[in-house]
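Whiteboard transcription, Tuesday session. T.W. wrote the structure tokens on the left side:
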């Protein structure tokens, strides 16, 4: 990834908690697209036998370990709060890509279970209009 960003002006590597992103947003659109596609193909072949997923989105190539998603984290948080007698009366859940779908599903499922106050207000938003399990979306 470093080699690709060094040879592509306007690209950068972002280190997230559970993934690496190669961002081509500020690169020349045509060259950045070609570099991102080439990097994606290269990483898929090099990491084929590793426990990671390699995918691309608009202006990014993302490498993420398998099994890391926000659904189990949201479920653990809600369960822990319920076990401690702290039922939330307000939940705001915001995500911007497909990896957030499990989180939306857990939060919406919690509205009919014992994890939230019976009077809880629950808002699940995705950023950008796309097919999603959430109820609402915001443009940006």
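and on the right, the sequence the group agreed on:
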């Amino acid at each position: 990834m470093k080699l690709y960003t060094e040879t592509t002006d306007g690209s950068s590597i972002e280190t997230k908690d559970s993934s690496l992103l190669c961002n081509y947003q500020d690169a020349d659109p045509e060259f950045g697209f070609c570099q991102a596609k080439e990097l994606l193909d290269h990483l898929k072949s090099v990491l084929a036998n590793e426990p990671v997923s390699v995918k691309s989105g608009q202006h990014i190539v993302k490498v993420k370990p398998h099994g890391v998603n926000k659904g189990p984290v949201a479920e653990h948080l809600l369960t822990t709060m319920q076990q401690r007698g702290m039922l939330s009366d307000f939940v705001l859940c915001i995500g911007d890509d497909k990896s957030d779908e499990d989180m939306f599903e857990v939060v919406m499922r919690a509205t009919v279970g014992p994890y939230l106050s019976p009077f809880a207000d629950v808002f699940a938003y995705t950023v950008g209009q796309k097919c999603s399990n959430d109820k609402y979306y915001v443009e940006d």
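Someone added at the bottom: The chain is about 35% helix and 30% strand.
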